[in-house]
Recover the amino acids of this structure.
């Protein structure tokens, strides 16, 4: 996590290994990398953002590292825009829209998701 102007940025990079069921008892081993970035932008300026309204922007991209059935390197993307309110140092309430795209070997899927979230920090 770090600050960028008035925004608070958080990043996460990880790799995952998965066994994906193809059909019946067939299993496919796949590895992919995920990169997540989120910006939280307070709607009021001040030294420390402890309470008030904010806007959140985030994106998470998934790419194949190893998967014999993968037609492309790109696997999935999750773009998200939200408005929220920080109720205190440890509690945020947020409502937003996520656009999730998934590319398979024989299909392309796009999901539109409305999300309501409650975030806690301890």
């Amino acid at each position: 996590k770090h600050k960028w102007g008035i925004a608070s940025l958080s990043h996460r990079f990880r790799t995952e290994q998965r066994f994906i069921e193809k059909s019946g008892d067939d299993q496919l081993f796949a590895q992919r990398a995920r990169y997540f970035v989120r910006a939280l932008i307070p709607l009021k300026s001040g030294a420390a953002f402890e309470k008030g309204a904010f806007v959140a922007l985030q994106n998470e991209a998934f790419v194949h590292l190893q998967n014999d059935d993968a037609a492309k390197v790109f696997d999935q993307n999750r773009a998200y825009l939200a408005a929220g309110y920080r109720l205190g140092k440890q509690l945020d309430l947020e409502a937003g829209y996520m656009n999730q795209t998934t590319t398979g070997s024989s299909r392309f899927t796009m999901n539109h998701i409305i999300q309501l979230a409650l975030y806690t920090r301890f």
Summary: The CA atoms of residues 86 and 92 lie 4 Å apart. The chain has a mean pLDDT of 87.
